[in-house]
Structure formats: C-alpha cells, structure tokens
Amino acid sequence: MASQYTKNSITLPDAIAMGTGVMIGAGILALTGQIAELAGPLFPFVFISGACVTAFSAYTYVKMSNAYPSAGGIGMILQKAYGPTTVAAGAALLMALSMVINESLVARTFANYLLRGFGTEPQGWPVPAIGVGVIVFAYLVNVSGNRSVGLVSIVMAILKVGGIALFGAAALWAGGFSFQVAGEGASTDGITGFIAATALAILAFKGFTTITNSGAEITSPHRNVGRAIIAAIGICIVVYLLVAFAVSSSLPLEQIIRAKDYALAEAAEPALGKVGFYLTVALALVATASGLIASIFAVSRMLAMLTEMKLIPHSHFGMPGVIRDHTLVYTVVIAGFLTVFFDLSQIASLGAFFYLVMDIIIHWGVFRYLRVKIGASGWIMLTAIGLDVIVLATFAWLKWQHDPAIVLSALFGMALVFLCEKVFLHLNPPTEHHRHAH
C-alpha cells in the first residue's frame, strides 16, 4: 500500500476522469429511473435543474480549493470555517457517509446491469453478492497506488463517456427526438415532484467533490482543482442530457419507472437491438466500476485527513500500515454493509439528505468566516444555500408523504453523527496545535 500522499501524482486529465468517473457511474445509470418516477415525463430537464444548483454550489468548493488545496478537501474547508468543533466534524462525517452511500448505490447498480445482461431479473441475494464483489475489486485497485487509480480512471472515463454519449446519440437517431408526455405511473406531484427529483439529480453531480478531496495530490492544485471541477461538471451535463432524452424517446414513462434500476439497458434494446443492449450493459459495468474506484480513492483520503485533524476516532484494529490504509478498509467495509442491507431507493434518499445538509453547512461557514479572505462573492454562496434549502425541504416533504421511515432514518442518522462527534470531542479536546491551525 502507498504509505503517504504523493504530490503531483494526479494530473489534470486524471482529476477530470476521477470526477466524471464518480458522477457518471452513479448519476445516469442509477438515478435516471428514480428521477423519472418523481418528476414525470419532463424528467430529462431535471438534470438541467440539478446542474444549475450544482454550479452555484461548486463555486464555494472551487474558491476554497484554489486557496487551500488539500488531501482532506471537504474536511479542510469545514475545519477552516468552524475550527475543530462538533459542527465541522459532524458535517465532514456526513459528507464521508454520503460518499460511502454513493459507493453502495453504484455497486448495486453494477449488479443490476450485470444480471440484466445475463437475462436475469435483478433480485434476491445475487444483487448484494455481486455488489460486494465489485467493491472488493475497487479496493484492490486502490491499494496498488495513486498512479494505478489515475490510469484506470482516465481509461475508463474515456471509454464510458464516449460510449454512453454514443449510445445516447444512436438511441435518439433510432427512436426519434420525442417525449412521452403522459403514461401510467407518471408522477402526480407536479412541480413538487420536479423539485424533489432535483435532489437526486444533485447526487448525480456531487462527484465533483472527489476532485476537491484529492487536491494536495493534483499537479498545480491552485489552478487545476478548479479547472477539473468545471470540466467534469460540463462533460457530465452533456452526457446526462443526451442519454436522458434518448431514454425518454425509446421507452414510455411507465416502462422507465418499472425498469428504474437498469433503465439504460431497457431503453437500448428497442432502439438499438440486441447488440446495442449488450454494448450498453458493458458500458454500464465499466462506468460503475470506475465510479467505485474513484469514490473509494477520495473518501478514504478524506477520512484519513479527518483522523489526522483529530476530528473523528480511529483504531487500526491490528492492521499494518498508516492511517490512510486503514480508512480505505473502513470505507469498503461500510459500503459493503450498505450494499447488502439497503435497496437503491433507500440508498439514494439517504445520500441526498446527508449531502444537502452538509452542503448548506459548508456554504454558511465559508460565507460567514472566510469569504473575504478567499475573495469570494457572498451573493453566490447565499444563492447556493437558498437553492439547497428549497430542494431539501421539498424532497423531505414529498418523502414524508410516501415513505416517512426514510425521513426518520435520515434524521436519526444525522442526529447520531453529531451526538457521537460531540461526545468524542468532549472526551478528546483539540490540542493547541489544531486550534492554532484554524
């Protein structure tokens, strides 16, 4: 295992590939059907809505990463904004958990597409078993070192971005540019459903934080972190829209919703035939596997940074190596647990709640304490907060109407995170060194 951070080990193309790897792996493959279920026939436009919210949100991360590139990324931003406090530690842990949740989401998506490729309905024990298997594969790639992660990410990103975009173009050509404006199973929630679906679309873009979390290892980080984030978001919105329009043109809405866990594969066969179906399944496997590799790479480094900041507890449990090696193991174990015990809808909802709450806390902290120091525009950050609040409140209200248990689970999980952090920091107060760093 690599025992230390290596400066200049991740190039600008590597960083862009890592960001798109996480975003496309989860976004278009795992969430298209769920977004369609909430938003109805105009679901492709939800990706535009999500991109707009993400654009305002990304501003804070770009400004902070350009000023303070760090291997901890999100943890660094929160620590600089709030100091070694319960708020900083709890919000950072929410971000880490949302990333791990994303890994389980992608792992189950990989399993769904693989089983569909073999003509089997994705259900029962094979789904979590295959999901855990691909998580283990992503772990093995990560322990081989940064350069392996970068090379695998960039090759897979080129294959999947090009391939999925080609799928979208071909499906549009075959099916005609049209929309299913009505259909059984369409959402009856109107604008509320559209805004709530935006919460899931934001998850499809949040992979840009993977780049933030690897800032210290990117070449020329003061310039390239921001460039990589902007490029990754731009690439993904083009791919998302192309594919969403293709799926909408190929399938009636009720069929998209029925096959929501593997919507792209379902859309490929009527538009492109059997060959197109199998090629789409292959692309989905590449996309989800590369997404896992990039996400595990980033979240393990974030957890290591939080450990070094003394914001979260740590135990090596007898394992050799340094902290980063241990957090890599913790990441895959938690992701594997979630993959076994939760389905895609539950995983996506928890991820949305955790991420949006953390995002609001980051924007407020930077706006309140750091915006003058980094030369940031206050109105952009306040707009980001306002958009997050609207989306989060609408998503929570709609979920409360249809699945109150998941809202209660999210509230309980967040309360538990902050309570545990408060107890940990009370028993392990920050040293003068960590307070001085703030």
From TrEMBL:
Q: Which PANTHER family match?
A: AMINO ACID TRANSPORTER-RELATED (PTHR42770), INNER MEMBRANE TRANSPORT PROTEIN YBAT (PTHR42770:SF11)
Residue ranges of the TM segments: 12-36, 42-62, 82-105, 125-142, 149-174, 194-216, 228-247, 277-300, 321-341, 347-367, 379-398, 404-425
Q: Does the keyword DNA-binding apply?
A: no
Question: What is the first-listed, main subcellular location in coarse terms?
Answer: membrane
Coiled coil residues, start to end: none
Q: Tell me where in or outside the cell this protein is found.
A: Cell membrane
Q: What is this protein called?
A: APC family permease
Whether Transmembrane counts among this entry's keywords is yes
Query: How is this protein situated with respect to the membrane?
Result: Multi-pass membrane protein
Identify the keywords attached in UniProt to this record, alphabetized.
Answer: Cell membrane, Membrane, Transmembrane, Transmembrane helix
Q: Could you tell me which InterPro entries the record lists for this protein?
A: AA/rel_permease1, APC_superfamily
